[in-house]
Structures are given as C-alpha cells and as structure tokens.
Specification:
This protein is an alpha+beta fold. It has one domain: 3-Layer(aba) Sandwich (Beta-lactamase). The protein has 11 helices and 8 strands. The longest helix is centred in the C-terminal third of the chain and has 21 residues.
Amino acid sequence: MSRLHSSRLCLPVFLVACTIGALAAAPAAASERLEILGDDPNLKHLGSEIERLAEASLGTVGVAAIHLESGRGVLLNGDTPGSRLTIQNVLGLMLRISDNIATDLLFREAGGAEAITARMRASGAEGIRVDRTTRALIANFLGRDDATVARPMPPAEYNRLILEGNSSQLDEPRLAELNEAFNSDPRDTATPRAMAALLRKIWKRELLSEKSSALLIDIMGRCQTGENRIPGALPPGTLVAHKTGTIGESTNDVGVITLPGDAGHVISVVFVKESKLPSNEAMEPVIAEIARASHDYFLFNRD
C-alpha cells in the first residue's frame, strides 16, 4: 500500500520546485505519446527502450531524456504528465532535513502561487503551475478539502492528519479514493517537457546569476533522497544533480546526469503516477532503468 511522503525538490526562492506527480491525461497510441527531438535516426531505439521499460510501472510514465549540448532527445508523454509541485530545500540545510515549514515560508516570500506560476511561464516553462502550499496540498490529498492556502489547518490538527495518513488507519478503499481524486486534480502540475526546459535554463545559467545557478546545482548534487531513482542504476561515481517527489501513487525524480569524458550532460525527467505496483519503492527501478538507458545512449551516440 502506498503511504504518504512529503515531496522534496530544491529551487531558488523565486523559482518553483516541482516533482510530485500525476499524469493528467489517459495514454494515447504509442506513436502519439513518443516524440523524437532532432534528426538522429537511432533515437527511435532509445524511445522504444524507454517505452518498454515504462511498461513495468503498471501505470503512466512521463519522460524527458535530452542531451543538453546537442538538443537531441526523446519525450514520452511530453505534454501530458502533471507533477505535483512544492518549493523547498533552497539551502543545504533544507535539502538535508526536507522541512515543509521552510517550504511554505519560501512560498510566501516568492509572492505566492500566482507569482511563482507567472515566473515559470516567463521562463518558458509554461507547463508548470503552482496553486498551493505544501501544507494545503498534503491536507487536500488526505481528504481535507477545507484546508486552503488562506485557511490552513491548525498545526495540531494537521499533525494528527499526517499521522493518520502514515498509519494503518487508511484502508485500501479509502486510499484508492484519495489517490483517484488527487490524480485527477489539475492543480500543482508540470509536464516532462516543461520541467526539462526549466532544468536546461538553470544549467545554462539563463535564469539565474552564475553564483545562484552554481549554488542551486550544488544543492541538487547533494540530494539525499531517491538514491534508487535516477542514480540507482548508473555507474558508480556518476555525478547527478537531482530532486525527488513522492506522494500517494506518484513517484518522481528530475535532474541532470553528467556523462564521462566530453560526452556532456543528460536531462532526466521521470514522472510516474497511478501505478498499481504495491509501493513507491517498487516504482523506483523503472526510474533508475530509464535514466540508465538515457545515460548509455547519449554516452555511446555523441553525434
């Protein structure tokens, strides 16, 4: 049974961080879901392998695997996965302890939902929207629709709700009901294409100063969650700057993989939602194997 975990992703104060996910639309035919970027004819093989690996999720998978320097890549469900969003872990301390209170403080400092979403649109990541604080999002996931940004639950009541959500008090039918409602909610969503665009701009220093960009990438490089996700099947010592998100049936990871030598870097975005696997941990090999397939393809196909 999937249980509740807080989402975790780091971005600077004036950017939104996002990976808690739900793919918003039903899957289309394979030819409609898969998109090849660039004129490399061999990318179709990577696309086919990603589709094959995605089937093991028993859910819907969104992927962006893009070589940063050349722009060549593959998108799977590139415009329909939605990832539940929060902002947090701006500093190394937040990264280590994943403090949701700090997240919501930064939400306020960044100007709130409308300002953060507008910032995403202005950056070219139009497939990202932010609507709620972490506290409101989790409370809503657990069935408390009355909890809002403007009217948050009292701390003691909220803490009791979290304890109930992580205990056996949620039976299978109730958990299925909560997941179904959460997965169909259009709020706080992002697509693989939009997330990949955001990561590219961050890596290319097109959104932030050199100092701020370096700080952000360094924090993501010290991520202490999701070791079995993007990094899970990569060769030992591979550098990965990433951030994870987990809630309900959604298990996600996004980041940039550094290839050896002069092969460059690979953006890796994998969102999984509505999986029928028994736990979030059971979904992690799907993310790891897709990341490894992307790593290997761009390592050995450099032109």
